[in-house]
Amino acid sequence: MINWKKHFVLVLSLALSLVLITSCTAPSPTPTSSLPTPTSAASPTSSTTAPPREKMVRVAQGFPVYIDPGVAIDNVSNVCVVNFYDPLLTIDENGDPQPKVAESWKFDPDTLTYTLKIRKGIKFHNGDELKASDVVFSLKRLIDMGEGWGYLFRGVVKEVSAPDAETVKIALERPVGPFLFYLEHVAVLNEKQVMENAQKEGPYGEFGDYGKSWLLTHDAGSGPYMVKEVKLEEHVIGIRNPNYWQEIDKDAPDSFKIIGTTEPVTVRTLMAKKELEISDEWQPTENYDAMSKLPGVKIANLRTGAPLMLMFNTSKPPLDDVHFRRAVMYVFDYAVCQEQILPTAERARGPISPIIPGSDPTLPLLERNVEKAKAELAQSKYAGQLDQYPIEFWWNSVVPDQEKIALLLQSNCAEIGIKVNVVKSSWTQFIDAAAKPDTTPHIFPVIHSSITYPEAGSLLYQIYHSNTRGTFFNMHWFDDTTQAEIDSMLEDALATLDKNERYEKYKAIIRKIMDLAPDIVAVEMPQRHAYQAEYLMWPTAKAAETGGKICLLPELRMQFKDMRFIGGE
């Protein structure tokens, strides 16, 4: 299992070190046709005829960004990785694994071994042919480094080998039901190119720094795009790979640019000038409303099953009492939260959305019930001394909607005699506070928008397993007995190879969680982006608009090769 505290210390340390590194330009292979210097689509011209629009997709996102597949784990980093690299497998809109670098596979349940056949003819960006040994190197690198998605494979993969240039064998230490999904997170690197550019001195013995410094600003992939320029803390530019092994439509983007900003005025201004094709997903509701009125701009509301959870610190009085927690959970006004504060969100039924396989769709919508709240509060050991136990609700200062939710809960709780103090905080302050139970606030809202694989177990493990405690994923701090029971149930479910049996175990865990009342699941949040619908066809946004299925994995929703420029030039 991953040591999440160590993992986040490493990621945060790398983030701080990036600030000290000067911006640099990454050399890249020369494409068969030159790409024009990026210019604004709205720039004035002296000609009476508008110049052809450069087919560049510009996307706003929060930085820092790590384009090294051995480090990437956040949304923006994974968007870069999925466009610069090819993974072993991919996952479609139905949540099924599909071939990518591995064109076929089989599993031997007796030896717990996967045998994968590697596709012939894939070339890395420098022209080298992708071989099975590159797959072995890439997976071993993930495990050795222990960062990014490495936690999925540490303690799980017993051995990985390449019997020949087109075959990879992965033997497991123990059964893992959703393991095939994990392979979407194995981006294949060019072993020779990485090691030629690796620093000899580093924490990985004979591998030196494993190419980490070089891979901050370069790629060693075979994906549909390749690095043109990385300016740390500013932007990432990728250009189309002219020799990609899959056909790319002529109207697909020639390039993309990930821009490191989420500042509302900046994002709105760039969208108005058509200097940004897709906004980030963290804008306040008021900004989405304003951008929806811009000519040609639409708001993509992507239902991805992401719960907005008001997580309780279950170790801090009075929330250490289950009856008190249930009282707070029942008194919250879910309808007002959804209808008046977050009108594009969905009402929730529990911690796992019905659209995620393995959920329990039979659960009723969460509803306010003041009488139940009073009854639970009467059973609490704090019932007669509420004035001595106020609770603090911290909200993230860059997300104004969270303050509105905090004030709603404050008002709701006041009706039954519970005092809620609303505290404005920064994300950095919360990350620091969440490391220990005594510094973690009573309540803090988190949107769990990242899902590792399309099953309920992904979010259940992320939010409730003890390995994630001390991070923003999990601030619950259950007592040892309760936590051990949850861990055992999760580990048993994940070790179950039969899918239907595994799903039933997930449902039992969900019911257990609901009984413990460790959160208020306020709503199911959409992932929202403003985008230039007038001239950019984004398949994910179109599917959401027409009621079609979209992929549950965030990075797979933003594969630039699948987008199209439309409406003439």
Describe, in plain words, how this protein is organized in 3D.
Helix content is 29%, strand content 19%. The model is unreliable at 1-51 (pLDDT under 50). It has a 4-stranded mixed β-sheet with strand order 1-10-9-8, covered by helices on one side. A 4-stranded antiparallel β-sheet has the order 4-5-7-6, with helices on one face. Strand 2 (89-91) and strand 3 (97-99) form a beta hairpin. It is globular, with a radius of gyration of 24 Å. The protein folds into 2 domains: 4-24 and 53-260 and 533-565, D-Maltodextrin-Binding Protein, domain 2, CATH 3.40.190.10; 304-526, Roll (Dipeptide-binding Protein, domain 3), CATH 3.10.105.10. By secondary structure, it is α+β, with helices and mostly antiparallel strands.
Write the layout of secondary structure elements.
Blueprint: H1 4-19, E1 56-61, H2 75-84, E2 89-91, E3 97-99, E4 102-108, E5 113-118, H3 132-145, E6 157-164, E7 167-172, H4 179-182, H5 191-196, E8 225-231, E9 235-240, E10 255-260, H6 264-272, H7 285-292, E11 297-312, H8 322-331, H9 334-341, H10 370-379, E12 391-396, H11 400-414, E13 420-425, H12 427-433, E14 443-447, H13 456-464, H14 480-494, H15 499-516, E15 519-532, E16 536-537, H16 539-546, E17 564-565
Parallel strand pairs: 1-10, 12-13
Antiparallel strand pairs: 2-3, 4-5, 5-7, 6-7, 8-9, 9-10, 11-14, 11-15, 16-17
